[in-house]
Amino acid sequence: MSSLDLIFMSLRNLTRRKMRTIFTLMGVLIGAASIITMVSLIMGMQATIEERVSRMGSLTTLNVYNYSNDPNVRERAELDDKFISMVEGWKGVEAVSPVVYANVKGVSGKYLSWLNLIGMKPEAMVALGYEATEGRMLTADDTSAVVMGAWAQGWWYNPKRVSYYYYDQGGVDMWNDKVEITFDVMYGEDQKQDGGSGQSNKPAKLHRINVVGTIRESGDERDWYIVMNADYLRQLIKEYQSTQGGFPGQQQQQKNPTYDRVIVKVRSLDSVKEIQKRIQDLGLTAYGLIDTLEEMQATTSGIKLILGFLGFICLIVACFGICNTMIMSIYERTREIGIMKVLGATFADIRKQFLFEAAAIGFIGGLVGLAISAAISFFLNTFGADLFGDMIGGGYYYYYGDSVSNAVSLIPAWLAVGSLVLTTFVGVLAGIYPALRAMRLSALEAIRNE
Prior knowledge:
There is one protein chain. By secondary structure, the chain is of the alpha+beta class. Helices cover 50% and strands 15% of the residues. It is built from 13 helices and 10 strands. The chain has helices spanning 3-16, 18-55, 81-88, 122-125, 230-244, 272-280, 289-332, 334-342, 347-383, 385-388, 395-400, 413-440, 443-449, and strands at 61-65, 93-108, 111-120, 132-135, 145-148, 179-182, 207-215, 226-229, 261-266, 285-288. The chain has a 6-stranded mixed barrel with strand order 2-3-8-5-7-6. It starts with a helix and ends with a helix.
């Protein structure tokens, strides 16, 4: 028998008992739709978590702190220039920048404001993801030049017009107005109201700053800070401490000063864990968004396991349904099988016919299940984002803006093709036993019993 004859006979047999075939197909399509929908939910959850974490910063960036969470650590390296030079020489490290924090008083004419300064290495800022939407970024030669975060303008007020109910918020333009800073927290304030708690009777020194750029909004700390060359900021701090004796919240300047934090940019995601381990071996804490991603994935692993298990069970049930249908078909077609053998059909022909019928049920059921899954995916992505937002980390959506994807279900091409291959394979697997039974039927016994 030719292959074309076998195909036509198989399709005709499937339409002979339409209702039974339909019910079998329903079992397959329900199983296929279930497993595709479950996997698509897992894919959507994974993609949403990765995108929202990446919105918080780069997955290849590590923040290094001068302490260790390991109680067994007895010695640790210092976050100083020596440490920075060492890490810069490691293979896989793209950029390293020290971080120096300082809360200062901003002065512009009669207006004052609290400003958050952060000192960084200008050469590393571009590699760390800093981008200017207006003006330019810092260079190694900059001193008084600063770049300003999207929300770092500050809240300017006139201290002479301050009352319990009213603050005169001034319209200071930091780009064009003269702006100075001082480390004297009581500068311009009525110290009588504070009980004379000024840090020093020496006159405060003002330092001019010039805004040369605005940093693109990112949703993290850089939006609220004014960035300055770390070396120049540390020089200002040292100068203030030498004349004023230090100020709250800032370490005393040492011969080999340490930094508040060091940021390490790794070239590839594959090297992050290796660099992190090397830093931790020095007795320091190195934490990155890769850790946050892993923690969030761990919390959703239980959900993934349950969804995958349910989809697998549905597909196993469909497999038994196909097997049962094919076995019933043998009893109904005993005479037909006997006649085929008498007419010269080989065992291979009988096996091919039953396997093709089972594969056709699996393929058609998988195709319809894929269509149903696509419809469910469209509905979930259109109307289910708010419903499932909290389950997949929706809290980040509101904090980091509307530009974050809120897809609940994703069906990539490989999942669509793979589902059809899987359901077809399940059909073939379910048809093996019925095909073997049909092959073992004796032609004469089949005709006589019929």
